[in-house]
Specification:
This protein is α+β, with helices and mostly antiparallel strands. It has helices at 5-17, 20-27, 31-45, 61-89, 101-107, 111-119, 136-139, and strands spanning 50-53, 56-59, 93-99, 123-129, 155-161. The longest helix is centred in the middle third of the chain and has 29 residues, at 61-89.
Length: 165
């Protein structure tokens, strides 16, 4: 059987809200759109999902039986979206920050690095102390991979920050 997930969203909203007007508001669509999508889902299923009553809509026995499966589909789609977003935002590696030593001494004990690590747990921050200006645009990065402290024109601070002290 072929049907559109959007039709299930409309079915769930109508089941939760009890009226096409409230379901439309919850979904950000017109009441007529909710009615049309429910009618299309019912046509594809070959059975009635809801009945209109004077006080709104109620699920039929068939609609009530399908509601838990529709909720599981909704949960699975939400989990899929969260997993996709998490994988997209998951970054790992080392961020090297070149700055004068007094700045390192102020940043290291601050909550800024803890908040950064909470948001990006896969990144490790390394401080390189130097009073020389560095250009990130010269090579596309501020330091070369594998560079030693001598070739960076400064000295690597003793602290590597990974969110723990």
């Amino acid at each position: 059987m072929d049907f559109d997930w959007d039709d299930l969203k409309h079915f769930l909203a109508l089941a939760r809200q009890g009226s096409t007007l409230a379901a439309g508001r919850a979904l950000g669509v017109d009441q007529s759109t909710v009615q049309r999508r429910i009618a299309e889902l019912e046509r594809r299923l070959g059975r009635e999902l809801v009945r209109r009553w004077p006080a709104g809509y109620r699920l039929t026995e068939f609609g009530a039986a399908l509601l838990p499966q529709a909720e599981r589909v909704e949960g699975a789609i939400a989990a899929f979206g969260q997993a996709a977003a998490s994988a997209r935002d998951d970054v790992t590696g080392v961020v090297r920050v070149t700055c004068p030593e007094p700045i390192v001494n102020r940043l290291a004990p601050s909550s800024l690095l803890e908040r950064f690590h909470a948001k990006y747990p896969g990144l490790r921050v390394e401080f390189v102390t130097s009073d020389r200006a560095r250009s990130a645009t010269r090579t596309g990065r501020s330091t070369r991979p594998g560079a030693t402290s001598g070739s960076m024109g400064g000295r690597r601070a003793s602290k590597t920050w990974n969110g723990t002290r």
